Structure formats: structure tokens, C-alpha cells
Amino acid sequence: MSRKRVVLVTGARGEMGTGLVERLAQRGDTQILALDLQPLDPGVARLCRASIAGDILDGRLMERLQSEFEIDVIYHLAAILSTRAEFSPRIAHDVNVQGTLNLLDLAVEQSRWHGREVRFLFPSSIAAYGLPSLETKRTAGRIDEDQFNTPTTMYGCNKLSCEHLGRYYARHYRQLARDDRPKGVDFRAIRFPGLISAVTVPSGGTSDFAPEMLHAAARGEPYACFVREDTRIPFMAMPDAVDALLGLGEAPSEALQRPVYNIGAFAPTALEVAEKVRAAFPSAEMSFAPDEPRQRIVDTWPEDVDDGHARAEWGLAPRYDWDRCFDEYLIPGIRKRYAEGR
Ligand code: AKB
To answer: Rg of the chain over CA atoms, in angstroms?
Structure first.
């Protein structure tokens, strides 16, 4: 009996998952298996060979994936984001770390059955960093992957743990076993900055202030930003984030010198975001009402990252800089979205 050969996307209903499924489907040569806790929108489900509503913590579901599908690539996007994770740290750990471990085990098993390496793409985050003070954040400059790996959030700890687990599975898995079977998992991770989409509004994240501000203005609703005006973190347009994931996924193994890469595109302050939003929506009602606990989290994230390794080793080249992101992607996209009543 032959199993269906697919690329697995977990968290397929999420912000990045939806964009990734659409891009993979456009290629025409990829059979997608989409997995999410909730059923996909019918329009997105139609793009997939199969879609399953299920929990990555469900062992039986992992068995089912193993027996029904032959998986070459896993994009493991399912996660609980940083703000939500602080309310339920234990659940966040289960989903973010145990869930990833389940998928890494699935990748090992798959590789053993079909005899090829399974590429495992993992979205890590700037939350993996933890700068010790605002003063350090302001003076550190663009930080590289090996600096300040001391996150203060459960989500950041989870992301950093998963980066290490992925590196272990790829390079050292069962290192005392006497057989010389290949490890089977080719793990690659990107530390994403905050992401902004013209189509979706995120939920549960701490970088959400920028997309929330924009979407509230487009809907004609007032918005009180939960961080100070001078708060600066890196951001990227969603299509560039999806492109980066695909780009890293396609890079030849020989080109890659590390398992984890920073990426970035622009790094505005919250005030600069508000000014851009106001230029497009002059009647937007925006104010700043910092929420101290959430502010403290963002204050530990870098002002900007050094993404030189990604540019040099696998050709990261975001299409949208700060101006193009608003002028050519966000503003036209968002006007269309709300005009169509989506
Ligand atoms: C969050 O805010 O939790 C995410 C992230 C920065 O990874 N958007």
C-alpha cells in the first residue's frame, strides 16, 4: 500500500500558515498536508491534498500521519504566541516544546521509512533574545544570533529550547547508538521579527501593536497602543516572511553554516508606525497607553538584528523596505480587504 507523498504544514490556519499554503499551492508541484487545531477555511483547504483538524500533542494523530503519509518537508508553524503564553505558561510549554518534539520524532520516523532526510523548517523569533536593560537595548546595535540568548518570556524560552532540540536531532540524535544510520532530520530555523500582514490580524503576540494599529485605522476604530512611542523592534512584511521560509527551505545544505538565522527588513518605533498609519488614514484615532507588563517584554527584544548570515548563506533579500511595505503592500492590500468586507 503506498502512502501519500506530501509536505506537512502545521498551524496551517494561522497568519503565516495561510500565506505559506497559498504560496506552496501556486508552485503546482507540491502536495500539501495541512494540520491545524481548527478546520481550514474551505478556500484554503481546497489548495491542499489533505487537511486535518487535530492537535500536535495527540499521539494517535502522529501515528496516523506516520501511517498514511510520506513526508519530505515539515513546516512546523503551530505555536502559542508570547502574550498568550504568559497567561498559561504550562500549556505554552506543552504546545510549543512537546509539540515540536512530537514533530521532530515524526521526522525521524519518516526518514527511516522512506530513506531520505526530512527538512524541518521552524519559525523561531526575536523573543529568543532577552536584553537585560533598556540601556543595553538602545546601545547594543544590530545583534547577532549568539548574543543575549537569555529570554524572559515562556514563549522565548520555548523557541530557544526548540532551536536546541532541532540542532540536537539534526546533529547528535542518539549519539550513543551503535548503528550508523543517518540522523534523518535537516533542521533549519529562522528567528522572525514582528510580522505585518495586510490580510490577517494576529492574536496573542506582543509585537501585535503594529498590525493592530494599522487594521484598527483601516476599520475606522480607535486604537490605544500598548507600548511607548519610542519602542523599537524589527518588523517584516508577511509575504517576505513566507518567502524567507521557502528560501531557507530550498537552500542547499552545503551552503548553511548554522541551524538558526536572524532575518529583518526594517525597525521602526511605534510612533513611526503610527505616523505611517496616519498618513494613509488621516482620521485614525490613535493614542499611546503603555501596558507596563507587555512593555517590559518588548523592552527585552532587540531594536534590530544582524541578518548578515541569512543574506550571505541563502540569499535573504526582502522585497519590502519600510516605505514599500506600506505604499505597495499594506495600504493597498488593507483597503482592498476591508472594501471587500473580508
Ligand atoms: C509575538 O509577539 O509573540 C510574535 C513574535 C515576536 O514571535 N509575533
So the answer is: 20
Task: Please state, in angstroms and rounded to a whole number, the distance separating the CA atoms of residues 224 and 273.
Answer: 13
Pairing between strand 32-36 and 4-10? parallel
The helix (H) or strand (E) run that includes residue 187 is strand 185-192
Residues touching ligand 1 (Cβ under 6 Å) are 81-82, 125-127, 155, 192, 194, 205-207
Looking at the DSSP bridge assignments, the partners of residue 209 are none
- pLDDT, residue 1, reads 63
Choosing from 155, 157, 298, 301 the residue with most ligand 1 atoms within 8 A of its CB, the one to mutate for a pocket test is: 155
Q: Which of 80, 82, 232 to mutate to test the pocket of ligand 1 (most atoms within 8 A of CB)?
A: 82
Cα separation of 24 and 257, whole Å?
26
Nearest alpha carbon to residue 51 among 35, 38, 63: 35
> What is the pTM for the complete model shown?
0.96
Three-state secondary structure call for residue 11: coil
Q: Cite the DSSP H helix spans in the chain.
A: 15-27, 42-45, 59-68, 82-87, 89-93, 99-114, 134-139, 154-171, 209-219, 238-250, 270-280, 292-299, 308-314, 322-324, 331-339
Q: What percent of the chain has pLDDT over 90?
A: 94
Residues in the chain: 342
Rounded to the nearest 5 percent, the helix, strand and coil shares of the chain are 45, 20, 35
| All three cell numbers of 319 | 522585497
Laid out side by side, the sheet with 69-76 consists of 50-53, 32-36, 4-10, 69-76, 118-125, 185-192, 260-262
- Residue 230 per-residue DSSP state: T
In angstroms, the CA 12 to CA 45 distance is 9
Partner residues linked to 125 by β-bridges? 192
Q: Assign 342 a pLDDT band (cuts: 50, 70, 90).
A: low
> Rounded to an integer, what distance in angstroms lies between the CA atom of residue 242 and that of residue 30?
16
Distance in angstroms (rounded) separating the CA atoms of residues 10 and 106: 13
